[in-house]
Queue: 2 jobs
Job 1
Amino acid sequence: MFSSEVREKWLRTAESLKPELRMHRVEPVRVVAIRHNERAFQKWEVEALPEDSGGVDSLTAKQWGRGESFVLDFGEYLVGRLEFDLLPAGTVDAPTRLTLVFGETAAEIAEPFDPYCGLLGRGWLQDETLTLETLPRRIRVERRCAFRYVKITVVDTSPAFSVRFSGVMCEQVSSADWGGVAPLSRMADGDIFPADILEIDKVSLRTLACCMQTVFEDGPKRDRRLWVGDLRLQALVNYKSFQNYDLVKRCLYLFAALAKEDGEVTACVFEKPLPQAGHTNILDYSALFVNTLLEYAEASGDWRTAAELWQVAKRQMEIVFGYVNSNGLFVDPGTWWIFIDWQEELRKQTAMHGVVICSLAAGALLAERLGFSGEAEQWSQRAEAMRRAANEHLFCPQRKLFMSEPQECSKAQISWASQAWMVLAGVVRDAEARKLMRTLAVSPDAVRPAGPYLYHYVVDALLYANLEEEAMKLLRGYWGGMVERGADTFWEVYDPEHPFLSPYNSYIMNSYCHAWSCTPAYFIRRFPKTFSRKNVHKLQSRGRS
Amino acid sequence: MFSSEVREKWLRTAESLKPELRMHRVEPVRVVAIRHNERAFQKWEVEALPEDSGGVDSLTAKQWGRGESFVLDFGEYLVGRLEFDLLPAGTVDAPTRLTLVFGETAAEIAEPFDPYCGLLGRGWLQDETLTLETLPRRIRVERRCAFRYVKITVVDTSPAFSVRFSGVMCEQVSSADWGGVAPLSRMADGDIFPADILEIDKVSLRTLACCMQTVFEDGPKRDRRLWVGDLRLQALVNYKSFQNYDLVKRCLYLFAALAKEDGEVTACVFEKPLPQAGHTNILDYSALFVNTLLEYAEASGDWRTAAELWQVAKRQMEIVFGYVNSNGLFVDPGTWWIFIDWQEELRKQTAMHGVVICSLAAGALLAERLGFSGEAEQWSQRAEAMRRAANEHLFCPQRKLFMSEPQECSKAQISWASQAWMVLAGVVRDAEARKLMRTLAVSPDAVRPAGPYLYHYVVDALLYANLEEEAMKLLRGYWGGMVERGADTFWEVYDPEHPFLSPYNSYIMNSYCHAWSCTPAYFIRRFPKTFSRKNVHKLQSRGRS
């Protein structure tokens, strides 16, 4: 599809854009205990040790021997490499053995990792064992870890000596430049923001910053790779905050250079040891490459890149449009993973139909801006035909909601995914869209989102339909719920009712700093007035009346 | 006692003699299984896997995933660093986690290390856990390990990939130069040696070579430090084989430079991170510093070093002689560790009395060679007075054996340690010495040696008394017993009746390549005719007649 010369050129472009990582030294702020508590999130809570136990400064004074351990809290979520001096007290007549456990959450520190029964590789869990032949030594854990807490256990010294710790710090790495981020407070036209909105914004940006490495990673603890679907959301937040356009550009070129033989963009790519395509294909992700490219060009003004990668975008549109039948309906070929959301019972045809429309509509805009007016017109018409088809075949007139697939109305599955994507695709607009989303809100049988990725699109749809109050409530309730449970970065998986939910049969394997969860800052910073105090108060009082 | 200028000069001399280590790449020879077998030494035996399972070459072809493991046999005992290529099969979408267990013996590979209840530091046990963020990778385990077997377990990859191993090798390190070792076969004046003698010699030299690093280590797996008592024995073998005089010299200067304030040589010193004295003091070891210095000068002809360190040697003599009372008897002050042997029930006064005589006698010789004839005479007379005292106070005329301390004969403890040291000290000589050792041999109540260190002095005493046959039997029986049990280096602890014996409450913590056990080669190479086939046959037929 694309010649190897072109691919190599794209790869060179991507590599030329690889950012230098910013290093920042962070010290732990306190020594803590992790206590079992039935009422705490995941049943473990972090408790500061009393002042007289000495805090971080006392580490150097204390001596640690066989089986002794302590837990450090760095006060914030970090991605980087741990360093410390290990000093002897006594005659070092044996190697020192340490284990380090790095935790994004308290539970990761407290729960044993083994025996491990998760579906993903055990290697993601962040525990390291060190054998140190001589002391004193400056120790640097070369593995890049993602954590707020670290538990250090002295497995053993010897009867002749114990050890002291000094100069513990994390060399934090990120390509995000906080200097470029406008303070949220300046955005509200003299008004201020409610405390929870400020906190949600901060946690969003921290989540994004931690994922911003030499690509936009999905999670700095686990997966650590670049996914199209996550990239789109990260890029949107990035345009409103760190404004690192080159990092988005690099990622777009990586996907383009590593596309499959037939031009299909793979769902994810790996950077190391050399850039390579992942073997996962997700149809909705491929489709949204088009939107990601358009939004990049709009935000950065870099239409040259858009022009250079237009063929890649167009190829994704051709691929997804290839699954649209003569009635204008997307039909699942059964050979692809269609993600939409983790929810197992969710039937995805309608949502995917909406994604395809969004992709084609973005492609039409892109073609128009690039001067391909004939193509623009063609894709625009196709999108419009699909909107009509949706209204004709996917809408249930009795329930006044979209079904998950063409179906007898009485047997239809109703889901948040379907309604959100129909709104985002412009199948229904304005008053009709508002009515749809309000009907959905009072449909308890509707299949709800299972995770942040779909919640993002639901909030987006609500704002698209001008349902400010509902969007705000959902954002404050869902992401605010994570903050209430102690999140200082947003999570890959969050269901308020199921704290141990995991797609991987291991909730400690979940990523607790996950890119697709970082979008509240995008909404807040895109519509600052909506989230400002005055408006929040106004909407609340309207809600009460 | 010694000025800091002098100490610093000695330390500089020691450092200037630090050898460059020889590196040698060794590949594993086979893939093996470790099987439980009640009749095997320590109940584990090594079994070669059948040819069709592929051997070492198949490692590269096979793919290994979660929980899979294999055991490599390097065919000989090695000290060094393991290296291998870890290659991916599939898409590397997670870190790879490996554990490596290095074993001197089969039991170390098979027995779990944890929970660990040993008395010494758990860090000595050689297991390493690696988390590898990307593949392919050349892995080098920076910890220096001592092993013949290594078990590699793939704790996990991920469902998307497995791993292959290639280029497994050990970068072996030693300061021993095998090129300088005369083949034993040339030493027998046209005769040849029995197979077991050849094997015992080979195992002895391998033991020594593995302990020869930048100092003479006592054991390359555990302790890894320089002890006076071990040094003396290593040096004796070294003079007959590798002839690395500078390494002995370096060790002598280290002990001298790091002697305690009062001039006492500590039992051991550490090299890293900077040379420093150990806090262990062993009186018999301090005493034998004198012998070690004399033997070094005699072997190397380097009497300048002997002259420079004479004050250190003399100080040890003064210290030990300080515990000799007016009757000429050594009296245990109770403030020292007197080692002699691990045997718990052993009472050590007589043996230590013999050690002191040996020390003073060596000092007298040293003084004479250095031209201090007055001092030589004085120390010689003191030694002679102690011999008389031993005959007067320590000999039991009824049993015709030495008691372990001045005692009523009927209540006396009889031990191999006491008789051996009385012979070595020249308290009895020639026919009397032979009678003593033969009487001992038919005294079943005599406390036997517990380990190789004392067995060395017993063999030495037998040869000293011209009891060729008995010396040979003991050497072939004791060290040959280790060979029969699979040793390819000689052990720190060996009691044929107690395979799980350990001074550390953990037999896998024992060192299975231990310097003090390497002396058969010294005896064989010092008296090649004695150990040659003709003589062995002659002695055996005499034994039968």
Job 2
Amino acid sequence: MSAKNLKPKPESQRVGFAIVGIGKLSAEQLIPAIRTGQDAYVAALVTGDVEDTLQFSRAYDLADDDVYHYDDFEALAQRDDVQAVYIVLPNSMHREFVERAAKIGKHVLCEKPLASNLEDAKAMVKACKKAKVLLMTAYRIQYTPHHWEAKKTIAAGKLGQLKVMDSIHTHVEPDPTVWRLDEALAGGGPVMDIGIYSINTLRFLTGLEPQWVFAQGYQPKNDPRFAEVEESMSIMLGFEGGLIANILTSYGAQSVSTVHVLGDAGAAVLDPAFAYRGIELSIRNDKAQVAPQFAAYDQFGLEIDHFAQCVRSGKTPYTPGEEGVQDHRIFEAVYKSARKGKRVELKRFDGQDVFRGTPPKLPK
Amino acid sequence: MSAKNLKPKPESQRVGFAIVGIGKLSAEQLIPAIRTGQDAYVAALVTGDVEDTLQFSRAYDLADDDVYHYDDFEALAQRDDVQAVYIVLPNSMHREFVERAAKIGKHVLCEKPLASNLEDAKAMVKACKKAKVLLMTAYRIQYTPHHWEAKKTIAAGKLGQLKVMDSIHTHVEPDPTVWRLDEALAGGGPVMDIGIYSINTLRFLTGLEPQWVFAQGYQPKNDPRFAEVEESMSIMLGFEGGLIANILTSYGAQSVSTVHVLGDAGAAVLDPAFAYRGIELSIRNDKAQVAPQFAAYDQFGLEIDHFAQCVRSGKTPYTPGEEGVQDHRIFEAVYKSARKGKRVELKRFDGQDVFRGTPPKLPK
Amino acid sequence: MSAKNLKPKPESQRVGFAIVGIGKLSAEQLIPAIRTGQDAYVAALVTGDVEDTLQFSRAYDLADDDVYHYDDFEALAQRDDVQAVYIVLPNSMHREFVERAAKIGKHVLCEKPLASNLEDAKAMVKACKKAKVLLMTAYRIQYTPHHWEAKKTIAAGKLGQLKVMDSIHTHVEPDPTVWRLDEALAGGGPVMDIGIYSINTLRFLTGLEPQWVFAQGYQPKNDPRFAEVEESMSIMLGFEGGLIANILTSYGAQSVSTVHVLGDAGAAVLDPAFAYRGIELSIRNDKAQVAPQFAAYDQFGLEIDHFAQCVRSGKTPYTPGEEGVQDHRIFEAVYKSARKGKRVELKRFDGQDVFRGTPPKLPK
Amino acid sequence: MSAKNLKPKPESQRVGFAIVGIGKLSAEQLIPAIRTGQDAYVAALVTGDVEDTLQFSRAYDLADDDVYHYDDFEALAQRDDVQAVYIVLPNSMHREFVERAAKIGKHVLCEKPLASNLEDAKAMVKACKKAKVLLMTAYRIQYTPHHWEAKKTIAAGKLGQLKVMDSIHTHVEPDPTVWRLDEALAGGGPVMDIGIYSINTLRFLTGLEPQWVFAQGYQPKNDPRFAEVEESMSIMLGFEGGLIANILTSYGAQSVSTVHVLGDAGAAVLDPAFAYRGIELSIRNDKAQVAPQFAAYDQFGLEIDHFAQCVRSGKTPYTPGEEGVQDHRIFEAVYKSARKGKRVELKRFDGQDVFRGTPPKLPK
């Protein structure tokens, strides 16, 4: 009954974050995750509407002067207790705020996709390098016990030689006014918002980079939601040695998220593969289907704690900016292929996990 | 992107709780649930070791003078912002603290089982009645969408006439020093700690009270964990109209939690039935197996929000003290039957949901 | 493309069976199983209505003189190609036909339950012993890869020490005229017809015999189906070392068949446990849930092939008459306990698999 | 206990089949299915090796003169009891035997794929038309309750507007000497043998024909199994209204068979989708996952019984030759696209179920 060893640890041992962009994701997932995690705490909020955010921040026990307007972002420079910022803004605003954060010497965790286009993504990496601050792309899937178990199973050769892969990530986006459907803010449609999970997870699980892309999409003419971005996209990715992946993504179809990685000696299946809770992994062969079990975890908490640990240690995050840049290379090729109706070759990157940094510590 | 409608609401609109007893359940489940819920907030902590609790409370942004020693519990009387206390202590301490809370006019949410014996449980109900404060037994299972969907399905007759029921709730308690294995503190073994879920859930799902009990248990001679309490108990409950339930509970067996309610036209199956996360409900007949789907929820949050709403409205909680008393009647009969090796008759309570109060509002 | 190694083998290498009792089970399960199996073939049919059976036998390519009336059963003595009989009659007729078969020197495979009461069951074993013919009780569950995998897992200690067990076997018997509801023909209700699966499977999986029984049943007053036999029965079985099992069986409830065997290091779960097709086994602990996979098989085919192999080799079947007798001892105790409302002690049998013979060869 | 209404019906009421090609599929699936079905019976076998087939045919109670050599196929003309032939030969032999069957006036059920190329497939349809015999392509998936339930759910609009589809069908073909890996005999690789299930089932479920194809395959250089045919193929199919399907097939990867049909209001998921036994269908939306349940059935039995009913009634089978021809059009486009690395347009067929005949009667 001693309270001595209870979590969380005192703030003095944790890394203070400013959350930049206070919307549903911040309020319902990220801030609760930080507040029930181990290595980070919420030190400040940065918002477009200070007044509205105050009532929210008070509910979370923050002082009123912990809330900043976007325009006053640079005031964070004075806050020694803010060591990192978490950018949770529309894609097209990522570059501006990452660059402003770099300038005032704050480490940056940035939501995926890293930017709204490849050029911006590259510029962000450059800015952070120059300022000697860490930049991490927030790929929560690369920090969970389930997905790491799948990756390790593959790396250990338990599926044999990989032959084919398949991933589906769809859901219905009902609100035509959401910024994700505005090309100027988002840079693209479901490919960049949810298809990114399929692309990024297959890259993560195999440690490989695709060499070519074929894609075909659909953008209905009479649906106000899809005036600017695609509704659906079907993507084929080719890897070294004939390994091929099929990917399906849509803002117009019932929620499904699956991953199948098939080798000649076994299969790894994640279904659901990308849900916030309840990921299920099955490792299968002719003899048995094995479903590894893990203690409950918060995906966002694991991802944020990893970044906080990197801030303290100075190590490169497992998913640095470069990892986010590579997805943008693939997005460009996807859209180009969809326009031209033919295969597009990608820049070659050989080797394993070429863009990744220090592996995260996984929960026991 | 407006932060205006984000949750949680300001504290001024929520009910302040003092958490009495700061251990693993408080730290890992209850406090996070309150802090990410809607209607409650943590205003104070009451603990046996203020020093140890301070580092914990600071991590949660509480002021140092929000932490009280058990001995100073009555100081909460001065705290207008503390409207309710949540008792999270060993069973044998429930009565003392419920009575002390009643005396200073605080409403009480008390962990299950309500007490360590029937007599104490009845005394607690009496004390709260006299003091005109609300008393609620913290049965999280009676507040979730999954279990309510099962209850409504049964009430609507979709399973036909109920015929037989079965429930298993087991897990391995590895630590011989835990208070749950100390009879003076716990009042009994797995029957009262986890078997209670099976008993209480079958009572909840059917709305019926059992009329007789048969039970047989096992207490190994050479296992230090079970020097004082049973390791396992098998329980048979008889209801009106020939409906019989089998229940199995153990501190010595691999974690399993299931409920089967079988009627002549269908079956309701919960598996896992009692886990903190990932409850699965299946309504089955010869034509189809239907698994109702719900948005993610926090079981403790729903339970605590219900009590906070009752505190504001003055309505009787859905699981008041009387609901907890009835489980103690059944525990007494279980232990008596196990000792005597024969059926024990229970006091008759006819009618539906005879001990329950205002139904909770379920999340959409 | 060579037909040389195709199955089935020629009849000359297989054991000829006379099927005694031509109903739904014979027609839809047993005869197709024999005809698609390896070691047996249908050489004759014995029936109460030769005329009706002829059209059926012709559809199965049998000659008209392969069909016998019950009265002419002894004519099988002349049929050298009939080495065994399979008794598929109402329970109360088992004894008569097993004794008649023994007299004419035919080996006997007898449907479960072995008889309609303990006395008959014992007499049948005695008669076959005396006549030096094999007697096997047709427990299909003791011949499948899934149930054997569970048994081996338990025997290898992978679940640790066994602590508690639970089994449910229910279905709705809609037809009030069926012989299974006629006590004179059946000897009892669901306990003996489907509860037998729960009892027998837990005995098989653990290799242990129960030491005591408690049971309570229900027989509705106004349901014509249950004028003579119970509708439901709840059964508690006590084994050595405090291991307890709960069993639930009913002719009035939606089809469910489950087995849970729980140890301190793991659990074996079968669900469905007793279906003709689609058995699923899960071996679980905190690290993983493993579902062993097997090639498709016919449960009846495996059981019958085992008996045919015993006929050829002269070895004792894995489930001889004695195995069936033991279930009758338990039935007697179940009904006695249900009548008296108290625990009934069983005759003690220590050791492992005390009634079982030569283990079956399992399919690869 | 009367045998009067037992199945199967006498042969005189059933349609006699000659099975042409006696291998594993005939011996383990088709003949048992016919023998336990309702409307067909095995009247003759046609084989390349009469001697080897005799021991097999005797085990199945056939007379020795019911076995014919391929060369003597025309002798079936004299057999009035043989009304239909079932062609179970390597793909490249289909045309010859279908044409020979048509010449002697026998109706033809032909295994899938209908032929080894589009030209042969068309010729077979023409030959049967001219001879006025029925020709059916043996697509077992178009005859099961599970797949029909999915089709009806889609047709009733319960998934809303269809948006995207995905199907995987893979297994490891270990034997380099099997005719399926010989291009002269098979006409192609996994696309035509197992990918055909994905293509054909998506066509069946939606009732639509694809308008374009993109495909990329892989044929390893150093694997003797894939000297002549592809190991894997990834296929994208475009339908009217922007509906896109991803298909993955391989002879080199662990057995998986799935179908996802996703609409804006729901999803239909089959997993496994194409196994001989144990098909599981799930109809999903945000409120519930519904798994329709059906009595056990034999897929081959249903398909063959349908054809036998057509033979008796003279109606066009649900999957006539034309249905098989259309898959060959798609195969041609798949291979062409894979060679050229770009989209290939298909001949347009508007309307619903344009190639299909009389729907089958489904089992209750």
